Amino acid sequence: MEWHLGPLFIILIMAAKCGSGNGMPQSQQHHESNSQLDPDPEFIGFINNVTYPAGREAVLACSVRNLGKNKVGWLRASDQTVLALQGRVVTHNARISVMHQDMHTWKLKISKLRESDRGCYMCQINTSPMKKQVGCIDVQVPPDIINEESSADLAVQEGEDATLTCKATGNPQPRVIWRREDGEMILIRKPGSRELMKVETYNGSSLRLLRLERRQMGAYLCIASNDVPPAVSKRVSLSVQFAPMVRAPSQLLGTPLGSDVQLECQVEASPSPVSYWLKGARTSNGFASVSTASLESGSPGPEMLLDGPKYGITEKRDGYRGVMLLVVRSFSASDVGTYHCVSTNSLGRAEGTLRLYEIKLHPGASSSNDEHLNYIGGLEEATRNLAASREATTWQLSLLLSMLLLLPLRLPPWDA
Ligand SMILES: *[C@@H]1O[C@H](CO)[C@@H](O)[C@H](O)[C@H]1NC(C)=O
Ligand SMILES: *[C@@H]1O[C@H](CO)[C@@H](O)[C@H](O)[C@H]1NC(C)=O
Questions:
Q1: Which residues, if any, are the signal sequence (predicted)?
Q2: What is the model's pLDDT at position 281?
Q3: pLDDT at position 114, please?
Q4: Hey, where are the domains in the chain?
Q5: Residue 204 C-alpha to ligand 2 middle, in angstroms?
Q6: Which residues on adjacent β-strands are paired with residue 286?
Q7: Which CATH number fits domain 248-404: 3.40.190.100, 1.20.140.150, 2.60.40.10, 3.20.20.380?
Q8: Which residue is closest in CA terms to ligand 2's atom 2?
């Protein structure tokens, strides 16, 4: 139960009645009746407004001189609830206490401050008319992020727009900035602009990303801070989705019999693709490409390659980028042919095509190369082997030439 204005009023009325009722205005009456022994009470200075963080103790001090028989009370200004009279707390709030200090000062203390304590408090003297002063308490609140009103992780197709939002509360109102979790710059496209602008941080609770590109994919952090520690942050992961893209840096690889050779495909895809290698079927007129036609026609279809003693299959991924590696061990004539790296995800499918051919060495020279792992980079390989074989030389020159001229390469019959 809280006492409201009632008690003070009663006190005020009683004080008024005590003065002799000779028809003079009450204030004058009061003044005159007490003037010799008891000068009018008055405030000394002002009540300082104070600011404290939530959880701490706030103190408002009200200083009065010449109080005499009058009383000092503390009220909450918003609803006029009486909190204390003289040295006595009259509200049932264990966090409120009063202290009478050095004769003149009445202190109102509110411990374990809450946001609801924010507001103004009135120090009243029950003179007639009553005298009052007001002091206000501001309660600082550290920032908080409202999850329900902030972005969750999101997936957006490339070319579409996305808005990352972070709603923060606190007092003072927190600042919100965005940065990328990986420390990279944030790329922002101004409306109507084609260029992406690089910024380390973005100020504002809403980060709008127009016509997303895949490099904008990543984890973003919104950080809310005000003068009250600690700052808080939220992580929003943005996935930019697109169909796989496959690129084979080297599409032609020559290698001597008996060696190991590595084929590489670079893949970009989001969401993460399922990737595998196929070896094209051999047909009478060369090498079949992977097509449903060849599968349906009953001709030998492409063979799915599995990791094992013959093939070493690995895949490395870093974000939306990946590398597919196929090592064909102990290269033999039957390994000559077309290989396909295939990558599929929910948005599409892509494949790269590579061709393996045999480099003929001088008789007897082939064994020395057994342990040699040929990396992709057919040109380098071809150049290095130029001297090795005269008959190979013409080959590789024509190969070099066709690669340089970007002409479609016609392969001669290998098995001749
Ligand atoms: C305290 O704040 C109140 C309300 O904002 C204002 O009216 C009053 O003048 C302030 N007091 C002082 C001493 O600044
Ligand atoms: C973002 O806010 C910080 C700190 O308030 C300020 O230093 C910076 O200049 C602001 N940047 C922009 C782009 O408004």
A1: 1-21
A2: 60
A3: 94
A4: 6-140, 146-242, 248-404
A5: 9
A6: 283
A7: 2.60.40.10
A8: 203
Looking at residue 188, its pLDDT comes to 93
pLDDT of residue 372: 44
Count of CA atoms in the C-beta half-sphere (13 A) of 295 = 7
pTM confidence score:
0.66
Ligand 1 centre and the CA of 137: distance in Å?
10
pLDDT of residue 53: 93
Give the Å distance between the CA of 203 and the centre of ligand 2. Answer: 6
pLDDT for res 282: 47
Whether the CB-CB separation of 378 and 319 falls below 8 Å is answered with no
> Residue 203: CB within 6 Å of ligand 1?
no
Task: Pick out the chain residues at pLDDT < 50.
Answer: 1-35, 282-296, 365-402, 404-416
State whether the beta carbon of 136 lies less than 6 angstroms from ligand 1. Answer: yes
Looking at residue 159, its pLDDT comes to 94
Evaluate: CB of 203 within 6 angstroms of ligand 2: yes
Q: For the domain 146-242, what is the CATH code?
A: 2.60.40.10
User: What are 133-146's pLDDT values in tens digits?
Assistant: 999 999 999 999 99
Tell me whether the CATH fold assigned to 6-140 matches the one assigned to 248-404. Answer: yes
35, two tokens:
């003037």
Integer CA distances (angstroms), 359 to 42, 63, 163, 387, 415, in order: 108, 102, 55, 12, 12
Would you state the structure tokens that stand for residue 268, as one six-digit string?
């970009």
Q: 3-class DSSP state for residue 356? A: strand
Q: How far is the CA of 213 from the centre of ligand 1 (A)?
A: 53
Q: Tell which CATH architecture fits domain 6-140.
A: Sandwich (2.60)
